[in-house]
Specification:
Blueprint (H helix, E strand, L loop, with lengths): L6 H15 L3 H13 L4 H12 L3 H13 L3 H13 L3 H13 L3 H13 L3 H15 L2 H12 L6 H13 L3 H13 L3 H13 L5 H11 L3 H15 L2 H13 L3 H9 L9 H24 L5 E4 L4 E4 L2 E3 L2 E8 L4 E4 L16 H11 L8 E3 L6 H13 L6 E7 L4 E7 L14 H11 L4 H11 L3 E5 L1 E6 L5 E6 L8 H7 L5 E6 L1 E7 L6 E7 L5 E8 L6
Antiparallel strand pairs: 1-2, 2-3, 4-5, 4-8, 5-6, 7-8, 9-13, 10-11, 10-12, 13-14, 14-15
Helix pairs in contact: 1-2, 2-3, 3-4, 4-5, 5-6, 6-7, 7-8, 7-9, 8-9, 9-10, 9-11, 10-11, 11-12, 12-13, 13-14, 14-15, 15-16, 17-19, 17-20, 17-21, 20-21
Length: about 550
């Protein structure tokens, strides 16, 4: 049996192809079987593919083998692949050779890989060249580059040429190796350029390689940027530890701890996220309160194609599907990184704003698609807090949480529909809002207050803390300290470092704001202790002295 066989066999094969395209698997199988019996060898290959699609792997292998035995190169390749996965390299080589003899580029490529693995480099080179000539295969070019490279000891000019061809076709390994070729040729600029390309192609070590070069040049800031990319984009463990060391050596211990724990699941947010989220916290809590008071949310529907959210029968525009939280794995998945969602849906458009903000301000939580909250004290609450903060970036009027997958997870939906009431400044709720936000962000209470005042248009004025420090000999020094980290003021710290020195009295720092409003002017004052924590909040109408 060879070729297409009798005209009747050709006709049966064509009928089988039409039936398969039309979804009639039973008719396609009948036609392929009859076509093969009448001498159409390639029908065996198509029948094997049909059986494989239907889940009959054993049947598929049997028919691939029949096709291979009748000289079908594609079938010979498939049999070779099966034998290779079984660990029988001798049989795999035999069938890959049969495929290659039939002009199959994949046969040449995989045969070359086997030959290269056992050291038959000349024959392997020939196979890779043939694969390249037949299909311009990126893997073939990358393998040729590696053979010429020979670990930096070979023909580096030829290696660069072949690695470059493969990299141009999107081969990350070739782009990464090209960086080392240029390094060995003492061209650091081209080396970094190649690694940049490899990083864009998601090679797991490329960004870290760039960072190493930058660190050797004492360019720490740019190196940190690349190390963060290495961690966030490809989960490079070495980069995470290197980042942690850099921050620890510069005295930024919270950042150091965050990056040391990041890949295993951090126990707290990044300092960058805390700085952002704390500033919007009180206002976002207030807006969500208004949203929850407006809608009972007993009935929720959403249409991502129309970007609408229906709550209790009321349709709202401006839907953004932020992401989902898994109750099983305690992880968050931004919808931009969820393969189950079509990324061109209108309800996903707002995510670009969130992600771009994260990249611009280097906020890991708004850059990485999949986040592990399992080590947070309250994983679901941690994800919720993050989502509420992120929603402010798209002007959301509220966020709705929908249980999905039979309670295994929650989908988080935001809407910026202008018909939803906007939270207005209310002096009666201010103390509660600020204290509630400060409880969420205990290390950023100053930012909580500043952010809230700025959000509501206050003219802000800050008064420093005044600290009286007494040394052991009774000498007293009065220091006016910046409002943040007053006890870390150099002059205060120097005195407190002496034996028996102490703070004998202090007046608290104050952040106060005036909100000029013709109808209802307000003043707001917040006092802070020496650990930057809120002591009291006073809010009231502005009064004018009479004469």
């Amino acid at each position: 049996m060879s070729g297409a066989g009798h005209p009747e066999a050709i006709d049966l094969h064509e009928q089988g192809l039409r039936a398969r395209r039309g979804g009639d698997a039973a008719e396609a199988e009948r036609c392929f079987r009859e076509a093969f019996e009448k001498g159409h060898a390639a029908a065996a290959h198509d029948l094997a593919g049909l059986l494989l699609d239907g889940g009959d792997k054993a049947g598929a292998v049997e028919w691939y083998r029949r096709g291979a035995e009748q000289g079908v190169p594609e079938s010979a390749f498939e049999v070779g692949y099966v034998e290779e996965t079984r660990g029988d390299s001798k049989e795999a080589e035999h069938w890959y050779r049969r495929a290659a003899e039939g002009g199959h580029a994949g046969g040449y490529l995989n045969l070359g890989a086997i030959l290269r693995g056992r050291g038959s480099l000349d024959e392997a080179k020939h196979c890779f060249l043939r694969a390249w000539e037949l299909e311009s295969d990126a893997k073939a070019a990358s393998n040729l580059g590696a053979i010429y490279d020979d670990g930096g000891k070979g023909d580096l000019v030829a290696a660069a040429e072949w690695y470059g061809r493969a990299a141009d076709l999107g081969n990350a390994i070739a782009a990464y190796n090209l960086g080392f070729v240029w390094r060995d040729r003492e061209d650091p600029e081209k080396s970094i350029e190649a690694w940049r390309r490899a990083a864009e192609l998601q090679h797991p070590n490329a960004a870290n390689a760039i960072a190493n070069v930058l660190l050797s040049q004492q360019n720490v800031n740019e190196a940190v940027t690349w190390l963060r990319r290495a961690v966030l984009e490809v989960g490079n463990e070495k980069a995470a530890h290197k980042l942690s060391d850099i921050y620890a050596n510069s005295g930024r211990h919270r950042e150091a701890r965050f990056w040391a724990e990041f890949l295993d699941g951090p126990k707290f947010y990044s300092p960058e996220f805390e700085a952002f989220a704390s500033e919007v916290a009180a206002a976002s809590i207030h807006q969500q309160d208004v949203f929850n008071d407006t809608f009972e949310q007993n009935y929720v529907e959403w249409d991502p194609a129309k970007a609408t959210l229906t709550l209790d029968g009321r349709a709202l525009r401006g839907l953004t599907v932020l992401g989902s939280f898994s109750n099983l794995s305690q992880t968050w998945l931004w919808t931009w990184d969820n393969p189950s969602w079509e990324q061109d849906l209108p309800a996903l458009a707002g995510l670009r704003t969130i992600r771009e903000f994260g990249e611009r301000h280097q906020i890991p939580e708004l850059m990485k698609g999949h986040l592990d909250f399992s080590r947070f004290n309250h994983p679901a609450g941690g994800a919720t807090t993050m989502a509420l903060a992120a929603a402010t970036l798209i002007g959301a009027k509220g966020v709705s949480f929908v249980t999905v997958n039979e309670g295994k997870g929650r989908l988080v939906l935001a809407t910026d529909d202008p018909s939803v009431p906007t939270a207005r400044f209310d002096r009666l709720t201010v103390p509660r809002l600020l204290m509630q936000a400060a409880e969420v962000w205990p290390h950023e209470q100053l930012r909580v207050v500043r952010g809230f005042m700025n959000h509501h248009g206050f003219e802000v004025d800050e008064s420093p803390a005044v600290i009286v420090v007494e040394s052991a000999d009774g000498h007293r020094v009065t220091v006016r300290c910046p409002i943040e980290r007053a006890k870390e003021h150099p002059e205060v710290a120097a005195i407190l470092g002496r034996e028996n020195a102490r703070i004998v009295e202090h007046s608290p720092a104050r952040v106060q704001g005036r909100r000029p409003d013709d109808d209802d002017p307000h003043r707001l004052a917040v006092l802070f202790d020496l650990d930057d924590r809120i002591i009291t909040v006073s809010s009231g109408a502005e009064t004018t002295a009479g004469g």
